[in-house]
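Severity: low
Component: inverse-folding endpoint
Summary: output formatting inconsistent between runs
Steps to reproduce: submit the following structure tokens with default settings.
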């Protein structure tokens, strides 16, 4: 961290740890930023769900054979580490950004940081919020 720079962070509750299913990613939207939470074995992993190929949100995330899949260009990332698994010829500068997780009293909390907001434009964040509301409404009606 540079001199004079501060790290702005905020914890927010996602769900009960008991609700998580093996290799079924959970989509989380917090202040317009998409997050992905996934359970692998006994471990929990969370990432900012933004593909670095074109800085597009991976919302909602999909998982197949232990890999998270970008819905835009089919780039895949390891579900445990966020590392690039397969690029399909695309230029992908880095893997998914990990997010700190805490389980407290059976509830899963993620740590949002100010730098996560800088990964998407305001327009993209609005799209994520809109998509999140649409998915929530669809789940309510199901």
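Observed output (run 2 of 3):
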């Amino acid at each position: 961290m540079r001199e004079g720079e501060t790290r702005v962070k905020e914890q927010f509750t996602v769900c009960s740890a008991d609700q998580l299913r093996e290799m079924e990613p959970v989509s989380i939207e917090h202040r317009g930023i998409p997050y992905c939470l996934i359970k692998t074995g006994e471990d929990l992993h969370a990432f900012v769900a933004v593909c670095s190929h074109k800085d597009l949100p991976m919302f909602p995330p999909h998982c197949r054979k232990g890999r998270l899949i970008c819905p835009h260009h089919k780039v895949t990332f390891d579900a445990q580490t966020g590392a690039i698994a397969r690029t399909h010829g695309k230029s992908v500068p880095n893997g998914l950004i990990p997010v700190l997780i805490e389980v407290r009293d059976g509830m899963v909390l993620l740590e949002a940081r100010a730098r996560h907001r800088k990964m998407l434009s305001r327009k993209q964040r609005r799209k994520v919020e809109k998509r999140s509301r649409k998915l929530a409404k669809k789940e309510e009606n199901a």
